[in-house]
Amino acid sequence: MGGINNRTLLIAAIMIGLGLIFTVKLFILQVHDPTYKFSAVSNTRRQVTQYPSRGLVYDRNGKLLVSNQAVYDVMVVPRDIVPFDSIDFCESLDLSIEQLRERFVQMRKDIRSRKISTYKPSVFLKQLSAEQYGEFQEKLYKFKGFFVQGRTLRKYEYPSAAHVLGYVGEISEGQLKKDAYYSQGDYVGISGIEQTYEQELRGKKGVKYMLVDVHGREKGAFRGGEHDTAAIAGKNITLSLDIELQQYGELLMQNKIGSIVAVEPSSGEILALVSAPNYDPSLLIGRDRSKNFPVLLTDSLKPLLNRAIQSAYPPGSTFKTINALIGLQEGTLKPYTTHECFMGYFARGLSVGCHLHDSPLNLAQSIQCSCNAYYCYELRNILDNPKYENIQESFNVWKDYLVKLGFGYRLGSDFKNEVRGFVPNADYFDKVYKKSWSSLTVISLSIGQGELLTTPLQMANMGAMIANRGHFLTPHIIKDIEDGEIDDRFTEKHETGIDIQHFAPIVNGMEMAVWGGAGSTARIAQVPGISICGKTGTAQNPHGDDHSIFMAFAPKDNPKIAIAVYVENGGFGARWGAPIASLMVEKYLTDSISTPYRQWIEKRMLEGDLINAEQKLQ
Amino acid sequence: MPNRSYNKSIDWITVGLYSLLVIFGWLNIYAANFNPENPVFFDTSKEYFKQLVWIGFSLLFVGMILITDSKFYVEFAYIFYGFTILLLVVVLLFGKEINGAKSWFEIGPIRFQPAELSKVATNLAVARALSRYGFSFKKFTDLVKASAVVLFPMLLILLQNDTGSALVYFVFIIVFYREGLTGYILTFGLIAGIVTTLTLLIPNSTILGLIALSIIGILYFKGVRKDLFKAVLIGGAILGASYAVYEYTNSTIDLEYVLIPAILFVSIYLLSISISKRIHKFVPTYLLILWSAIILALSADYFFEDVLSHYQRTRINVLLGIEEDPLGAGYNVNQSKIAIGSGGLTGKGYLQGTQTKFNFVPEQSTDFIYCTVGEEWGFMGSTAVVLLFLALLLRLLYLSDKQHSTFSRVYGYGVAAIFFFHFAINIGMTIGLAPVIGIPLPFFSYGGSSLWGFTLLLFVFLKLDTNRNELIR
């Protein structure tokens, strides 16, 4: 080829060189390298998601609350299905032939609406038991196009604390769009701590590529598993909950409506959070959920409602402590201030009734006896303080105290569905009364009635704040996250703006309410050897009987527990609230109910039935 | 057609190769769209049916090309080029955007991509420019003119956001080389490629250091000793000082800029000595190479980060092994390799493929049609395609060298070079040797525009070839 130009030869050489490189690479790919070898008919690669096990949940004493159980989903690749023995199929899966037919109709519908793909695996049947799985796995070779994928469900060790723990369920369409981590059919925490700590609990999904043969049987890892990623298990978390106390609280609240919240004042840790009526969290696991959830949802007693954080009630007389603190801080009230009370407060055609007690009373005594008249004077002194130009200004000062004391806004606990309660401001009354209102107009606020709404959680926090003599830590249920830290907001001290010296008369009054002589409102709460301080409350309820309330902490010095009890339609605070709270305190601090008298109270509380009694009346 | 003595008949070998490629291509498009559950043939919405229509039109064009006088292509080269440039501008303004590239005209049911036509027009214009009497790559103005003819349409296509089609124009460097462009350019291109690749793999500062050290090494062995020693000593001191400043001020500039003052000093020092003392006359050349490499390394990063789009970056990263992503950017290639690999020695048999159906491999019948060949025809079939293309390319080179007129020769090289680029990149990407740049495999990939473009390109040359003994002016 002497006639050919040298440069042409070089160009030709480059072309031939590349042709050679291609041939060698093709040889490696197609003939030499076995990793790309598939048998001629139809070996395919299957992508199997590796679901991590969700993090475990422990209580404050290290008791396991929530663990995992293995279940198996039957998966299907629609285009791989060939006709099979449907009777055999149904028998091994405990299905009726109609159910199977129904599933196929649904599958075709899903394919048509492009919800699932014909050549990618999707769930055909959810959550087989271990035995079903064993039986089906053996016969799998007969059912081309089907295979089984393992995943885990929650397992609850106690039939308790459902509202705290929340539940796990299949992810919704909306959430799926928001977070790319999830795919159709994934499980995600929907309420309670399962929702709040989803990021920590869920772990990280892995993926495994399997080779499968004609019959859908797995033939080992694709390319030795080099593309596989392992699932990373979720982090374990420890709650501040004391499951023993929680269970006891749920027991005490049986056949009643209401809630108990117990908090450790020094840390803000929630020790118990009872909402009654409650339900067994196991009802909402896996396949059972679709059956049980509608029943719970339509129950007239609303067991799914977490009353401890989602219901707001008037605080009633427990709120007198707060008004007293504001008065002391404002200087309009002194510990030695006395007011007279003759069965009530009367002014300009308005009257607030009171019950029979000694008169006149000083501050501590007013709390001990829960005198209504005392607080009518007291609130009026705050609001009519000449220091402020008008009622609007003084009222907003009063409101600002409340906000700092933890009312009117969400406390920011780790429950996402917490409600904020209600504290009115001056604008609110300006609107209602067209700007013509006075301290007398809002007089019911003095005794915790009227436009005021607080959640049981806020009420327990109020107990903790008094126990701490002026500060609180945001109540929270998380105590520890494995290899992680709990949110800063839970360790931050909130000062309330009330000086520490103002707490002595309040605390003494609360102590006397339990331990004092005649006129003390909560003597039923006496626990031998424990200096409980408490305040009863009775919230007027326009829809029925009054709500029975008790807010307390113990012991008086160096308090270990603050508690709020709400029993709907329970009447006086001393009737249900005080005994239940005192039993909770006794149980928590001494682990048992000591004297025969206390055991009698316990028995009465356990037997008390406010739900069925009410129904009887109707 | 009168067959005069110096007129040759059409080159039947090339026509044969063309026919084989088109037929084999169509069979694979049919296979890629074949649905075993519903095997229909006469479905006008199916790609294989449409491709049959495009092939029919191609034959019509072939006939038209063959009855046109060869002189026409010479005369109308620039007009045709101008017309195509106009189309490229118009499509930029009024075109339809498909897959992010604004490069399509849509008239009723027909879609047409002017970039395909522009390859033919540019090749004609290059042939015309290079065949001008007295043209030489040694003349700077000629070099600029020839480059402009290529770069102009390339730039317009780049503006359409069709990077793949634009890159094709680089291949004219082969034509230029054949026509007398200095071989240094090719070497330089090769080095540029290596440096660019390296900048993506290792930190710039390391590359700069390596380049500087190798140049110093070369100069040392070239006999520059004493001056070099001094320069490096002072350069080292400067480097130390600038590094100290960099550390002390907690500067956030990239580390490679710390090296620049020292390299700059050494360069100026050596240059001044070389000029003033009139020794080591080769020094300026090496310094030029040094600085070109430095600028290239610095601009490659800019090009990579700011010019390429995210998906292109990821694809290159996956190819270079920086990113591992079998389900994301690497998905196409991974699936494609599995499909080809599953073919084995003899393939699964025609229409028996499983990996190349059901959209396991995206762009199945267009850019990734080669997978179907690999899966169903195995190693035998895929090498056969490689051999067919090689045969076509070599035949084109052979025919080009036989041309009496420069115009025909240059045009022939252009055809070979363009086919070569498509062949190299397309097959390269399906077997994981080249980045995924969406350009079709000539005669194989589904699509009217590309089939017509390639047919036009080839048969204009075959027409010119029938007059190979004449001087076409």
UniProtKB/TrEMBL annotation, chain A:
Penicillin-binding protein transpeptidase domain location: 258-580
Keyword Transcription listed: no
Record flagged with keyword Transmembrane helix: yes
Domain Penicillin-binding protein dimerisation: residue ranges: 50-218
Keywords: Carboxypeptidase, Cell inner membrane, Cell membrane, Cell shape, Cell wall biogenesis/degradation, Hydrolase, Membrane, Peptidoglycan synthesis, Protease, Transmembrane, Transmembrane helix
Cellular compartment(s): Cell membrane; Membrane
InterPro entries, sorted: Beta-lactam/transpept, Beta-lactam/transpept-like, PBP_dimer, PBP_dimer_sf, PCN-bd_Tpept, Penicillin-binding_protein_2
One of the GO biological process terms: peptidoglycan biosynthetic process
Membrane topology: Single-pass membrane protein
Cellular component terms per the entry's GO annotation: plasma membrane
EC number: 3.4.16.4
Spans through the membrane: 9-29
Protein's name according to its UniProt entry: Penicillin-binding protein 2
TrEMBL record, chain B:
Pfam family, one: FTSW_RODA_SPOVE
GO terms for MF: glycosyltransferase activity; lipid-linked peptidoglycan transporter activity
Membrane-traversing stretches: 12-32, 52-69, 76-95, 166-195, 201-221, 228-246, 258-276, 283-304, 377-398, 410-437, 443-464
PROSITE patterns listed in its UniProt record: FTSW_RODA_SPOVE (PS00428)
GO cellular component entries: cell division site; plasma membrane
Membrane topology: Multi-pass membrane protein
Predominant location category: membrane
Gene Ontology BP terms: cell division; cell wall organization; peptidoglycan biosynthetic process; regulation of cell shape
Keyword 4Fe-4S assigned: no
Name the UniProt record assigns to this protein: Cell wall polymerase
Organism: Carboxylicivirga sediminis
Gene name of the record: rodA
